[in-house]
Amino acid sequence: MQGITYSRNVFIPVTDLCRNRCGYCSFRRDPENARAIPRSEAIDLLVRGAESGCSEALFSFGESPWEVPGFERIMARSGRSDLLEYLVELCELALEAGLLPHTNAGVLEEEDLRLLAPYNASMGLMLETTARVSAHALSPGKSPELRLEHISRAGRLKIPFTTGILLGIGESERDRRESIEAIAGLHRAYDHIQEVIIQPLDPKPGTPMACTPRPKPEEILTTVRMARELLPESVAVQVPPNLMDPLSSVIAGANDLGGLSPITLDWINPERCWPDPKALALRLKGFSLEERLPVYPRYVLRGWHGHKTRCLVAALAGDGGLRRKEYL
Ligand code: SF4
Questions:
Q1: Best mutation site among 11, 18, 268 for ligand 1 pocket (most ligand atoms within 8 Å of CB)
Q2: Which of 75, 81, 184, 298 yields a CA-CA distance of 20 to 30 A from 6?
Q3: DSSP single-letter state for residue 215
């Protein structure tokens, strides 16, 4: 029976301050309403995540928040001045709690990636699209060149990496193909892409793109088939099961369902609940649902995960690199 993987995570929004203004975003806050997560709140989430059987701490935040006026004031409220140093501290707390960090912090300089890599089992950045779309007109960080360069940088540093494309933001089918081909090209160069997310836009009320139609299921499945055809077999194709029927996705060629959290929201699509893994396993007739770590088995076996995560990965991973059964 074909295995379909997922990970169990706790989603920690480190700050919702962001230099970009994507037309579909409901996560970002203006400086007067933005926050950085207090240490005590992060610890509470990490402890509850570990108690709920999670293996992953997903740290996510708006891009380059330090460029936004008011950043220092927001950081001061959590008693910190340097966000990346604070993130390292949160990663250390995650490891102490028994969770493997996976950070998606937007486009970063190489020295910042080097700072974070040792503490992370894997890292990520959505490419979204190689097209220039009006949804990104106010988002300097969504320049395709910058994002492709960031993904290359991660490859040069041998960081197991998650990326993906966002469907329905104004790109064409040809753009989707070009985006997936660009990811496949970077993987051929560095061999570091562990999964590619095919994520449909879920328009949010109150955003400039609230009335944009959601991509149709057939369009999503066509893209999943395209990704499966263009990407090497070793790169997983992931479709979030809270945004698309999971059985249709796996029949079309997806072989991963991403991070599911027993205790935290999908902060990007907070009204879309995660399915329970047991219910998901029943739904996936003809496939077997298997739990993985935030780092995929072949990078576990190669030892590419950050060196500070080695002991915990060794404790959590079974012989084949998936999550050890006794931890389930
Ligand atoms: S980069 Fe992310 S957080 Fe920032 S505006 Fe765009 S979608 Fe929102």
A1: 18
A2: 184
A3: P
Distance CA 83, CA 300 (A): 28
Instruction: Count how many domains the chain has.
Output: 1
At residue 79, the pLDDT reads 83
Q: Which residue in 259, 119, 265 sits closest to 195, CA to CA?
A: 259
> 217: which 2 tokens?
């299921």
Q: Which residues of 159-193 are buried (b: 16+ CB within 10 A; e: fewer)?
A: bbbbbbbbbbbbbeeebbbbbbebbbebbeebbbb
Kindly state if the Cβ of 29 falls inside 6 Å of ligand 1.
Answer: no
Q: What percent of the chain has pLDDT over 90?
A: 91
CA distance 206 to 194: 34
Q: What is the 21 CA–ligand 1 centroid distance (Å)?
A: 6
CA dist., res. 38 & res. 30, Å (int):
18
Domain that holds residue 6: 2-267+274-327
* pLDDT digit string, tens, across residues 228-287: 999 999 999 999 999 999 999 999 999 999 999 988 877 788 888 898 999 999 999 999
Backbone angles phi, psi at 143, to 5 degrees: -60, 125
Residue of 19, 24, 27 best suited for mutating to test ligand 1, as the one with most atoms within 8 Å of CB: 27
25 pocket-lining for ligand 1 (C-beta < 6 Å): yes
CATH code of residue 20? 3.20.20.70
* pTM (2 d.p.): 0.96
Pull the structure tokens for residue 142: 């969504």
Q: Quick one: which of 33, 42, 55 has its CA closest to 13?
A: 42
Other Cβ atoms less than 10 A from the Cβ of 311: the count is: 10
> For residues 137 and 133, what is the distance between their CA atoms, to the nearest angstrom?
7
Round to whole Å and give the CA distance between 50 and 312.
13
